[in-house]
Amino acid sequence: MKIDKALWKREYDQAKWIVWIMPIAHFLALGGDRLKDWYLDKPESIRYRLENVHSYLDAYDYGDMELMARIGLMLMLFVLSLVQIGMERRNGGQEFLFSLPCTRTRIFWTKWLFGIALLTGSLVLNTAVDMAVVLGSPIAEHFRLWYHLDQFFFAWLSLAAVYAMFLFVGTISGSLASQAVFAALAPVLPFLIALLVRAGIAVHSDDAISLLPGADYILLFPVRYDYPEILGSGPFPWIFMAVCFVASTFGAMVAYRRTRAENSGKLVVFPLWERILQVGFVFCSALAGGTFVYAFFNASTVIMYYVGLALGTAISAWVIRQLLRLRLKI
Amino acid sequence: MLAVRHLHKSIDHRPVLKDVSFELRRGMVAGLIGRNGAGKTTLLKTMSGVFDPDTGDVLLDGESVYRRPEIKREIVLLPDNPEALYGYTAEECARLYALVYPRFDRAAFDEMIRRFGLPANRKIRQLSRGMKMLVSISLGIATRASYVLLDEPTNGIDPIAKQQVLSLLVEAVSEGTTLLIASHAMGDLERLSDMILLIRQGEVETHAMEDPSRGEAVKLQVVFDGEPPAAWLAGPQIMVLEHVGRVYTLLVSREDGDAKLEELKRMKPLVLEELPLGLEDLFVWKLGGRNDEDR
């Protein structure tokens, strides 16, 4: 339908520079980097590198290039989500879209599809280029099709999940600035909370800490895995990413449909999320306050931890109340 | 017909629209007036689906614009600043609008752009405020939508651009478009409107242009014989609009009957002349009291 064409055109118009930069940056981090290592470097460096290749893992550098490419793509998707949601809130684009003769659900799916299509396109193109580079290089004998496919699917799922989460955070955030902060925090928030909880428990009892899972396991996004980690981590990250992808997509769609445009400029647009933010902020700040005071005074008594906890609670409760009253222009 | 039914909208726990109901017939012009922050923009945005109402509905020929947003092809919102289109040229805007609105009249748009000497290939953000509004209104009219909602179309633009904007609006009306114009430009609304919607404390009152005060008030020019009656002038039913020398221009309420008028006649003023009551008088009468809750 023509309206879909209009929505796609609008998405492209506002994010066209990302459409071009993303595959190019992806190429520079993956195929281009491999091209440099195996074609463009000095012959003696290539020879030396080749002498140290004993397995396909050596040849593929343990997936380090794919890892860097995934990190780069994650940053691009972060920026894309800011452009699609936060910037639109700021420049009146969202109000323009909401006044058009189409449902908000339709607008949301256009945005989502645009990002997913861009990610898929960049991955397909650059995986193909990378395979061609490997096949034509001195490490061609170590070429493994399933290695490329593993990396492709892992990158697709982990980045689609992260992108959906960025969109979800965007739909509940009220401004560009708050979206940027919340989206940057979201992937590491479970890790930070786990760290603070562990520190709090360790203050009371060293024994209990051994019963808790390592904080690192809770770090959300396996975007940072190298190839041995992908192989060795079993089905958990795949399931986790799939669940995160579906839940974030659904959550973002519902939040976008119910967006309260009149609250644009606030930290978050929904009263429920305002309360969640308030409670979460105070909880984390209290734990951080306790940990900080306990460590700063090198305390031998747990009382100092509770002093910090109380201070953290009081200060953060005041700060978040002020922040929630703000209407940000950015 | 576009019918607004029992619309409620609260922002930050403050009711901005309270049980707002009115109807716009095809081909009419309605002016929307009210103090700053009274809720004019909120009403326009809620009617066009930008904001969700808390309760109530907006019906286009009996169908809800919230349940069937595709019928909004017949409703165009033109905000006071077309910021969302800043990255486009007028030419690109036309292409975008043509995809959204099936009856978009490209020839008419090109003609309007040419007539007003607007640059078709310069980004909207680079245009003057008047030019921005002209492009925006040209786009809105060229959609051939039946209802165009305009938020402060003549605010902050020079008199020549203002005349051009008004001429565009008059043309649109002559072609059967219904306009709802939120504005503080009372003179413009007086010339264009068939009906006035006055918004205060979240409620909307409807006033026909033939009798904007609905017989609730009368405007008088008075010259008193001797000392002006200070106590009478200070009464709640009297509003002094102007006082030059011995000449008073007054608004006298008739809400409680003609008692105050009779009192005035008994004072035997030297001059007692009824003046036509304009839109600005209505605005001042309704909203310009001790606070905007007065009448």
Helices and strands, with pairings:
The complex is a heterodimer of chains A (330) and B (295).
Chain A: H1 2-29, H2 31-40, H3 43-51, H4 56-59, H5 64-90, H6 93-98, H7 104-135, H8 145-172, H9 176-185, H10 189-204, H11 206-209, H12 227-232, H13 236-257, H14 271-296, H15 303-325
Helix pairs in contact in A: 1-2, 1-5, 1-7, 2-3, 2-7, 5-8, 5-9, 7-8, 7-13, 8-9, 8-13, 10-14, 14-15
Chain B: E1 2-11, E2 14-24, E3 29-33, H1 40-47, E4 55-60, E5 63-64, E6 75-78, H2 90-100, H3 106-115, H4 129-142, E7 147-151, H5 159-174, E8 178-182, H6 186-192, E9 195-200, E10 203-208, E11 217-223, H7 230-233, E12 238-244, E13 247-253, H8 259-266, E14 271-275, H9 279-287
Parallel strand pairs in B: 3-8, 3-9, 6-7, 7-8
Antiparallel strand pairs in B: 1-2, 1-4, 4-5, 9-10, 11-13, 11-14, 12-13
Compact overview of the structure:
The complex is a heterodimer of chains A (330) and B (295). Chain A has 330 residues and is mainly α. Chain A has helices at residues 2-29, 31-40, 43-51, 56-59, 64-90, 93-98, 104-135, 145-172, 176-185, 189-204, 206-209, 227-232, 236-257, 271-296, 303-325.
Could you characterize the architecture of this molecule?
The complex is a heterodimer of chains A (330) and B (295). Chain A has 330 residues and is an all-alpha fold. Chain A has helices at residues 2-29, 31-40, 43-51, 56-59, 64-90, 93-98, 104-135, 145-172, 176-185, 189-204, 206-209, 227-232, 236-257, 271-296, 303-325. In chain A, helix 2 runs parallel beside helix 7 (104-135). The radius of gyration of chain A is 23 Å and the shape is flat. The model of chain A has no long low-confidence stretch (mean pLDDT 89). By secondary structure, chain B is of the alpha/beta class. Chain B is built from nine helices and 14 strands. Chain B has helices at 40-47, 90-100, 106-115, 129-142, 159-174, 186-192, 230-233, 259-266, 279-287; strands at residues 2-11, 14-24, 29-33, 55-60, 63-64, 75-78, 147-151, 178-182, 195-200, 203-208, 217-223, 238-244, 247-253, 271-275. In chain B, the strands form three sheets. A six-stranded mixed β-sheet of chain B has the order 6-7-8-3-9-10, sandwiched between helices. Chain B has a four-stranded antiparallel β-sheet with strand order 2-1-4-5, covered by helices on one side. In chain B, helix 3 runs antiparallel to helix 4 and helix 4 (129-142) runs parallel beside helix 5. Chain B starts with a strand and ends in an 8-residue tail after the last helix.
